[in-house]
Structures
1.
Amino acid sequence: MTFPKEVSIVEVGPRDGLQNEKQTLRVEQKVELIKLLSETGLNRIEAGSFVSPKWVPQMANSGEVIKALNSKANIRYSALTPNLKGLEAAIESGVKEVAVFGAASESFSQKNINCSISESLKRFEALFELANHNNIKVRGYVSCVMGCPYEGDILPKAVTQVSKELIDMGCYEVSLGDTIGVGTPKATSVMLDDVLKEIDVSKIAAHFHDTYGQALVNLYTALGYGVSTIDSAVAGLGGCPYAKGASGNVATEDVLYMLNGMDISTGVNMNKLLVASSYISDVLGRSPVSKSANALLGR
């Protein structure tokens, strides 16, 4: 195995993490969390989501949050925009990067956004046009890359097809999401063997949930393939509100501890990350779901 010398960590806690929390945070609490994360060395932070507050009420104040952030030249604050209306709202808030999502599972696509995979991608055409016109970068997510709560196992070729279509439409990078965390190292290998036949590894990111405690070993496997971008959430926040049993994202602290132990550079300071972890855990009234954070904070 040849591992990358550097890895870019994409912090998704303020969006993918908090969207699945029962507690809705105030604007100033979210801004404080993102401010603390911005001081750690993390330079890619997903700050919110422009979706219907009817479906994801925790993200209803994303526009206010993003407007309240102090823009830093070295930090990319992004937002999820599932449709044209969401993108228009994101542009109004000043976002310079957005994300769209497709699924490798037809059933998940239907239950999540009430349309087929092909229909969901077709809807993005106008979004990409507007994003390009406004010089906004677009990142892609693919859900259920190793399993679906409705269909079970997912064929790797389905992951490859959706990922390639997103890149062909204009995504600079596609993040492969193990939405319900059922993946194993073998499944990760089988999936990446297929995807990387069609897509350069530099355009692929890993977004693995830790439902069955497999996220780190799956990330280790992906690193061995040369994947050098990892999505994670501070304190192990969140999950997917549409996937029953999905307990949450892999914790940024645990990812960082592993990468530090592998001498892989990230530019992220663990001590400062622990400050952010302690803050959001206190706000939510519980301990971090991160073994590394609990061990280091307990010293």
2.
Amino acid sequence: MAEQLTVPQAFALLLTEPDGRRVLDAQRFDTGLAGAVLADLAVRGVVSLDGKHVQVVNGAPTGSAVLDDVVGTIAASGGPRGAKWWVTKLGKRQLRDDVYAELVSKGLLTSTQRTTLRIFTTTSFPEADGRPEQQLRTTVLSVLDGHAAPTPFAAAVIGLLDATRTLRGQFGKVDKARVQDITSGTWASVAVKRVLQDVQTAIMLAGVTAASAATASSS
């Protein structure tokens, strides 16, 4: 069941608590989701990174509306763009909502809304069926422990958790050398490696920008 999920679905599922709360801030979550979409498309051979540019090489339907929408967006972009540009472009609230909607439609999460002060409405996504997430966690943990060989899917998921600095929080103390082998070895394609690097860069740049803005506002 684990690999019947898309990479962005797996990423979102692992980083959403049973009560529907995200375990990290929206910016890192959305950036990670954008990277997850590109990594998934690279694993499927739908996109390639020709040099530094993301290009659609197979426009056949993937079975995921989220992935298909992104493929259409890339194909219609009208010019070559790098993975880092797409990570920033795609990492928005709409992508998050769309990935959660897919998980709701699969029956893994539910959608609930809460209004505070009669003005502000927030949506959370509590767990509806925890078995697929548990299977996913078992799969990832087996790879991290060296009991199972990585698949491209597992390498992408582990790499994204590592890039967003959530891997240890989700799976405890991990062997850094093992993680490096999974994400930088032959298990991950060149395109996926580039996406993971660009996710890390985008998150670091966002952190620097946020820190600079905080410093400026306090001076």
3.
Amino acid sequence: MAKADTNGLASLNRRLQAIPKAVKEAVQPALQKAGGELAGDMKRLAERSRDTGDLIRSIAVTPAGQKTPPYSQPGGEQVVPENAVMVTAGNTSVRYAHLVEYGTTKAEAQPFFWPAVRLNRKKLTGRIKRAVSKAVKNAR
């Protein structure tokens, strides 16, 4: 089983490496726009949990090759892979985004992150797929 998984990963990596640089660059605007829309919806949904506004201001879109803010959710600080953007909530000053999202024994959950992802998934995925298709057609 492990051998098959390794071959599948190697095949995927070869296919990704074969994507022309022009196609990758042409998709970046769609990725950035999708990330911006997702972050905007997260900020709107986080309004009901507003106390100081720090959580809302901590929602960030990080482009490929950059590091996400330390202590951001989900996943903490990490480098965003090529052909991606990451939308995160939290930073060194706001380490409680997950507590707002999921709640605690003393505070009710006020989800903002995953509801925004679920609301936007189909629309943003479609936009990115259309941008990839268009870039591939133009690269031929």
